[in-house]
Write a structure and sequence with these properties.
The protein has about 190 residues and is mainly alpha-helical. The chain is built from six helices and five strands, in the order βαβαβαββααα. α1 (about 40-50) crosses α4 (about 120-130). Mean pLDDT is about 75; it is low at about 100-115.
């Protein structure tokens, strides 16, 4: 059976990125967001929540030119299919109610009532799940380790360059004052 995903709502990593501004596409508050989420992180979180989705790894977010190169991808989420399977339930106001999912703990919602529309509630829950993913933790540890190694190499190169400039003679001391002047000869 093929899945018709033409009407699935899209989720870009920018929607969850706490480092981005609202103008760059962040859809939830920065305190609820996740720094630098990837398309794979969102995929793993949706898979753990048993929500059908489609990964489109080569789609870029149009509002943020940087993400079109650095953090490609988008996820199309089947909210209606999740409702049909009993994973999500449609609320009275026409939004999806994530409070009734047995695996999810939505107890830390803000005091604004239902916590926003269904997609916004889903984004907040995705950010919460992404923070605990083991694959993300190892990726961030490797990234931090590489950054530390690059800083150490840069500091070492800087020390070597400083040592070379101290031992090499300066070009101003070698030059003398007996250079010929160029130009036309005077008669």
């Amino acid at each position: 059976m093929t899945m018709n995903y033409s009407r699935f709502p899209a989720i870009y990593p920018n929607y969850l990125d706490s480092n981005k501004t609202i103008k760059m596409g962040r859809r939830i508050s920065a305190k609820d967001g996740v720094p630098e989420p990837t398309c794979i992180d969102i995929h793993e979180a949706l898979a753990s929540m048993n929500i059908r989705h489609v990964v489109q790894p080569y789609k870029g977010y149009s509002r943020d030119a940087e993400s079109r190169w650095d953090n490609l991808g988008r996820i199309l989420v089947d909210l209606k299919g999740a409702e049909d399977n009993g994973l999500l339930q449609m609320g009275v106001d026409g939004t999806f109610d994530l409070d009734n999912i047995p695996d999810l703990d939505m107890s830390d919602e803000n005091d604004s009532g239902n916590g926003g529309t269904g997609k916004k509630k889903l984004l907040k829950e995705l950010a919460r799940v992404i923070k605990t993913l083991p694959g993300r933790q190892t990726r961030l540890e490797q990234k931090n380790r590489l950054l530390e190694e690059e800083k150490a190499k840069a500091a070492k190169a800087e020390k070597e360059a400083a040592a070379k400039t101290k031992t090499a003679p300066s070009s101003g001391a070698v030059s003398g004052g007996n250079r010929k002047k160029k130009g036309k000869k005077k008669k």
